[in-house]
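Below is a concrete protein record.
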Amino acid sequence: MRTRRYPRDIHDAFVRRVFARTDTVSILLRHVLPPRCLAYLDLNTLELASADYTSRKLGRRSSDLLFTVRLRGTSRRIGLYIALEHQSTRDRLLPLRELEYLLLLWNRHRRHRRRRAQTLPFILPIVLLQRRAWTSPTRLSEIIDLPPEVLAAFGPPVELEMIADDLSRSVLDDPHPDRSTVAFVELARALLHAYRNPPAQTQERAASLVPLVETLMLDPKSSDDVITIWAYTNGVFKKGSPIHAALHRAINPGSLSMTDEDILMKPWIDKGMRKGLRKGRAEGMQKGRAEGMQKGRAEGMQKGRAEGLTEGLVKGRARSLLDVLDLRSLPMPPATRRRILSTKDEHLLERWFRRALAAASVEEIFAPDESLSAGMGTAK
C-alpha cells in the first residue's frame, strides 16, 4: 500500500499562511520578546515587508517573513526589521544560514540607497523550532570549531544569536481583543509543536484543542482560518490519531462551504491532500446526515459563513495568486498587485491563478485568451 506523500515545505507554507498577518505576528512577538524590548515597539505599526529576497546562492527562503515596525519614544521614525523563520528539521549550520540572510537584507538596503547608507537597519531574527529542530544551534559561536576554553579566550569573530521559540508554551493569555485570532495562533502553534512529538499528541491534548476550533468556527471572518487548520491537520497527522480524530469531529469537513475549486486554490495543498480533503468532506456529510447535527448550530454556522465566504473567496484567491507569483519570483510591479487585489471576479482570478503556475512572464498571465491561443495553441 502506497503511503501518502506531502510536499516537503508544507510546514513552511503553513507558517507563512498563519503568520503573514500583522494581527497574528503581534501575538507571537508579545510571546517571545521580553517586556523591556516590547516597550520600545509600536506593534500597531507592523507591516509585512516585500518577500522578494532571493539569491542564486540561497534560493528562496520559503518560510521566512520580514516585517517592519516603528520604535516608540523617539523623535525619528526608525525602522526595525523582524525576520521570522521556521525550522522543521535539525540544521547544524542554522546560524550561518541566518547570517547569510541578514547580509542579503543589509546589502539590499544599501543598494536601495545607492550605497550611500552609512548605517544599517537593526534586524531581529526569530526562529520557530519544531521538535526535530530543537537541537539546532541558534548562536554562531556554537558552530565555531575551537575548544570552548580557546573560544572563550579569543571570543568569536562574529556573533549572532537567534530568538528561538520551541512552540511549547501557550499564547491564550495574550491581550489581543479578537479571541478568534488568538485561538487561530494557539491552534497553529499547537499543531506545529505536536508534529512528530508523541507527548504532544495525547487524547487529553487533542481534546483541549476542540474549544479553540469551536471559537474559530463561530466567527464568520475565520472561515478561511478553519480551512487552513484542517488542511494542515489532514496533511501531517495520521487518520485516526488523537489530534486528527478530535479536529475532524470538531470541524466536520463535510459542513465546510468549500468546493473543489476552493481546495485547488490553495497553492500549498498537493494532490494527496486535495483527495483527502474531498474524502473527509464526503465522510463528514454522510456522518452528519446519519447522526444528525445540532440543527441550530449548523444553521447558524452556515449562515455566518455564507456572509463572509463571498468576499473571503475573492480575497483568498487574490492572495493565492500573489503567493504563486511570489514563489515563482515573477517580477510584479505595484500596478499589477493593485490590479489583482481590486479584482472582484472569482472566475477571472482563478484563470489568472492557473496561468501563473506555468507562465513565463506576468504579461502572459494577463494576456487576452485570443493572444494565448495564437501563441500557445490553446486558451487556458
